[in-house]
């Protein structure tokens, strides 16, 4: 990241411009609002404040509106007050009948009785002339007559906007404009930063089919741009890692499937020859060796079957046919099949199984495979405890299956301890059947609990 593209540099520039802009901009705005030659000139103003002919005309029309519906005496009194209030001003009043009622300080021979043509001619002749003349209908109604104000234009030219009277107002407006400009620039700066950060956050939370976010377009090479580049690099590494992982997983599955298939043939041959030897006359030592060979070949066969099953399960190719089945009956059948095996090995068998039907959403072949793996695990790994307990409890809302032993525990050592692939198959099958399971293991034994919440 180069310093010229740094967000810190941009914000420091904004601060410096703001510090410089406030005094410089204030001076410029002051010169803009005020007339430089008259900055320190304050002219004398008449009693009635006005700064231009427009202001004077607006004031006169305002006074005419106020006199709407007033009595002749009130109108005359107010006009005399106004004539005194404007320096060098002359006033005239013509009533609704065209009769001139008042004329003060006005040069000119004006008729006492006015016609419409004379009034129009008067307005035309005084327009843009000296003195400055403004005419207003009393009450804004031609039916109530009109009143005239004349002020010499020389006096109008002397009326200036007082600098010191308006200085505080101009200062406040100028400062407000400058501060508002600085705040707006700062807001835009941080708004754009926030918008880019939110875009990055949205990209992080938007996952594709692979579960990995898509790369984001880098708009600027600043701190956030560096973050966006790092994000894109992380995405590229994740995609590469995911692709490599998928390739390795596919290769591993293919290897396990091939090994499982290739090992079955020699195992079958070994089993066949072991069976043939069992028919021959052997010494006691030979019979013991043959029994050990038969046991290890059976263990190896189960291990290969587990490897093959695990490969099919992890790839989603293991046949799955779920339905509502009586799990109590299935457990009793599995226990009956394994009972002679445990009895032959001298196990103490404790059963607590309900006689009532307990229905659950399971695949019966999968559940039978789960029980077989768990029983086999007890036989191989917990044979030192010579104990197995199986209990099934059920209610209207759930069932709970418990299998316990008195072996050395998961972390303990035993002659039959393996790689744990049997339990991996159990975990995958129970998860697919949406059954919960937990294992509590100590050095005094292990308990596995399988349950379903309706």
What features would you describe in this structure?
- The structure is a single chain.
- The protein is an alpha+beta fold and 454 residues long.
- Helix 7 (223-278) packs antiparallel against helix 8 (284-314) and helix 10 (364-381) packs antiparallel against helix 11.
- The protein folds into four domains: 3-40 and 162-202; 53-158, Beta-Lactamase, CATH 3.30.450; 209-318, Helix Hairpins; 320-453, 2-Layer Sandwich (Heat Shock Protein 90), CATH 3.30.565.
- The chain is rod-shaped, with a radius of gyration of 53 Å.
- 55% of the residues lie in helices and 15% in strands.
- It has helices at 7-33, 53-66, 72-85, 116-126, 153-158, 163-205, 223-278, 284-314, 327-344, 364-381, 421-432; strands at residues 90-94, 100-104, 132-137, 146-151, 323-326, 348-352, 359-362, 387-394, 398-405, 436-442, 445-453.
- A hairpin with an 8-residue loop joins strand 3 (132-137) and strand 4.
- It is built from eleven helices and eleven strands.
SSE blueprint and pairings:
Layout: H1 7-33, H2 53-66, H3 72-85, E1 90-94, E2 100-104, H4 116-126, E3 132-137, E4 146-151, H5 153-158, H6 163-205, H7 223-278, H8 284-314, E5 323-326, H9 327-344, E6 348-352, E7 359-362, H10 364-381, E8 387-394, E9 398-405, H11 421-432, E10 436-442, E11 445-453
Parallel strand pairs: 6-8
Antiparallel strand pairs: 1-2, 1-4, 3-4, 5-7, 8-9, 9-11, 10-11
Total strands: 11
SS field, number of helical segments? 11
The CATH class of the largest domain is identified as: Alpha Beta
Superfamily (CATH H level) name of the largest domain: Histidine kinase-like ATPase, C-terminal domain
Structural class: alpha+beta
User: Fraction of residues in helices?
Assistant: 55-70%
Distance between the termini: 58 Å
Shape category? rod-shaped
Question: How much β-strand is present in the residues?
Answer: 5-15%
Q: Say what oligomer this is.
A: single chain
Q: Can you write the helix and strand succession as a string? A: HHHEEHEEHHHHEHEEHEEHEE
Number of domains: 4
Strand order of the largest sheet: 6-8-9-11-10
Say what the CATH topology of the largest domain is.
Heat Shock Protein 90
